[in-house]
Design a protein that fits this description.
12 strands, alpha+beta, rod-shaped, single chain, 602 residues, 4-stranded antiparallel β-sheet
């Protein structure tokens, strides 16, 4: 919490002032370490938090500032060692060793173009630990060589003393500027304060002067509290405090790691504090691993919860109906339906909550749906798609349906159906198809559909031993009426003629408008030619009455009719030609007759 405030404030400080403050901080922390963490008679401090402070500054610095930070750290470390009594040449070399240590750590963290401050999962933690271990070993070896050459000290004891002191400091302090997972810490300020009090109290109890009982396990639950409830920076801060208290108290003879002389236990003070630092480093690894695992799981759970909310929103507010179905005897029973699906099915004969879902569709489509269901249950299909017509009480409705097994099903077999209302699209398709086959003015079959129906009638006639009749009609005197009263009157006449022709034939016959004022009728399933003659007589009666026109006018239209029959062996175009010949023959006989026009009341 404190680090979250300090880091942005530090980054707003001018670069020159940052370097000055950093140098002074490292120098002060180093002097404090020499005074507090250097056993009597030793030339080296057993814990070196100045290395951790340097790593924090280097991680917070930009790429262009890092060489300046390394230079400042070298100068501060040189000043510490020179003030602490080291020879100047030794102090300079120790400064270089500390700078090389920090450079190696950051270089390893940035390998592969990574962000050196990234701490989003256990893999980032172990990458950080590896880099810190390399840095601690490197500075320990370099410093041991310098001290060995300068003072004749053996290398291994120096390495054994320096490596843990740097490792613990680098590991604990280096975690402070890390970017953690985006999950928010659950602990509030009061809870965090309680954690700090408990951590300090437990460390004072475990490492109290004269205390020899091994109670270090008591540190685990209190730090685990922070790992589970607080952020990584709170946890890192508490680990730093715990390590510092443990080192100080051990130097004063407290805790289970206290030196006991050559007769048993830990032989030297340096070894005792080294054990403390290794204990702190191990504790940090365990706690931080637990923290990152818990935070990763929390973040994954939060992502899943967000995804579930999004899916529920799509399911409830989207354009697709979603129905959960269960396989029962006889078909599919509806378990649940979202708002869209319920609205889709409101117009059906049966309601989705009280009937089998398959029964909502017409018989023909129900059969293909059941076939698809069989394929799904037999693992022959992963998903079934189809377009189904609903069994509606009023206007037809069509749905595009995707049906698949519920991957999360438990117990009885369950499926999920997605439904999309495609009624508008299907209606437009039907309308376009009708426009392609119907006369737009009268609604009768057009020339294309006429030839199709005539072809089928001729093809089926031989199988039934019947005949096909073809009637062609042409209006006499239609053009003068159209010219005199306008196209509206002409359209009225054509529409009325079409209605009368439909009334004058059987329901299975086809009435078509071939173009202009010419009509044709296909009479199927005739037993003989007399049936066609009867139809012609009926049509003449239907067309005899005057037709009412706009503005009170009326017109009596004359007609010319040509009729032929066929046993089904004739070509459709040839048969039409024969009917035209018969019609024009009648037209020549009635040529003097014209349409008469009368005026109504005005």
């Amino acid at each position: 919490m404190v680090m979250s405030l300090l880091i942005p404030a530090w980054q707003r400080v001018p670069a020159a002032l940052q370097l000055l403050l950093f140098t002074l901080t490292v120098y002060a922390v180093g002097l404090l370490s020499v005074e507090v963490f250097r056993p009597s008679g030793s030339t080296l401090a057993v814990w070196w938090p100045a290395a951790g402070v340097g790593l924090v500054a280097l991680l917070l610095a930009s790429a262009s500032q890092r060489w300046w930070v390394l230079g400042a750290h070298l100068i501060a470390t040189f000043a510490i060692n020179a003030t602490g009594g080291q020879e100047l040449r030794v102090a300079v070399l120790l400064g270089f060793a500390n700078a090389i240590e920090l450079f190696a750590i950051v270089w390893l963290l940035e390998r592969g173009g990574r962000d050196p401050r990234q701490m989003h999962g256990p893999e980032d933690l172990w990458r950080f630990v590896l880099a810190v271990c390399v840095g601690a070993v490197l500075v320990a070896v370099l410093a041991a060589l310098v001290v060995s050459v300068a003072y004749g000290n053996p290398v291994w004891p120096t390495v054994r003393s320096i490596a843990p002191s740097h490792l613990s400091a680098l590991l604990l302090f280096g975690l402070l500027p890390m970017r953690q997972l985006p999950s928010q810490a659950e602990a509030g300020r009061a809870e965090v304060a309680g954690q700090w009090v408990l951590v300090c109290a437990v460390m004072l109890l475990v490492f109290a002067p004269g205390q020899r009982i091994p109670l270090v396990f008591m540190t685990v639950p209190v730090l685990l509290w922070a790992a589970l409830r607080s952020g990584v920076r709170v946890l890192a801060g508490q680990l730093v405090a715990a390590a510092g208290l443990a080192a100080v108290m051990t130097l004063r003879g407290g805790g289970p790691f206290t030196a006991t002389g050559a007769t048993g236990g830990v032989p030297t003070v340096q070894d005792a504090v080294a054990l403390v630092q290794l204990f702190a480093a191990t504790l940090a690894l365990v706690m931080l691993t637990a923290f990152l695992v818990v935070q990763s799981r929390r973040e994954a759970a939060a992502r899943i919860a967000r995804r579930d909310r999004r899916l529920r929103l799509v399911q409830e507010q989207g354009l697709t109906g979603v129905v959960e179905l269960q396989v029962v005897e006889g078909g599919l029973s509806v378990v649940s339906a979202n708002r869209i699906a319920a609205r889709f099915l409101e117009g059906t004969h049966r309601k989705s909550s009280t009937t089998l879902w398959c029964e909502l569709f017409v018989d023909a489509d129900r059969q293909q749906l059941r076939a698809g269901l069989h394929g799904l249950l037999a693992d022959e299909l992963d998903t079934w798609h189809g377009e189904l017509e609903a069994d509606t009480e009023d206007a037809p409705r069509w749905f595009e349906v995707a049906l698949f097994l519920d991957p999360d099903r438990e117990g009885p077999t369950q499926l999920v159906a997605q439904m999309l209302d495609v009624t508008a699209r299907r209606t437009n398709e039907i309308r376009l198809r009708d426009l392609a086959l119907q006369d737009p003015l009268t609604g009768l079959a057009n020339r294309t559909l006429f030839f199709d129906r005539l072809h089928h009638a001729l093809a089926s006639a031989p199988r039934t031993a019947g005949r096909v009749g073809l009637i062609v009609l042409d209006l006499d005197g239609f053009k003068p009426i159209n010219d005199r009263y306008g196209h509206q009157a002409g359209d009225t006449i054509l529409i009325e003629i079409a209605r009368r022709l439909e009334r004058g034939v059987r329901s299975g016959d086809t009435v078509a408008r071939l173009g202009g004022d010419e009509f044709a009728i296909v009479l199927g399933q005739l037993t003989d030619a007399a049936g066609a003659e009867t139809a012609v007589a009926r049509l003449r009666r239907e067309l005899r009455e005057p037709i009412a026109l706009p503005r009170g006018n009326s017109a009596k239209i004359g007609i010319s009719i040509g009729m032929v029959t066929s046993p089904g062996t004739d070509d459709p175009h040839y048969l039409l030609h024969q009917a035209d010949v018969a019609m024009y023959a009648e037209k020549r006989q009635t040529a003097p007759q014209t349409a008469s026009v009368g005026a109504g009341d005005r």
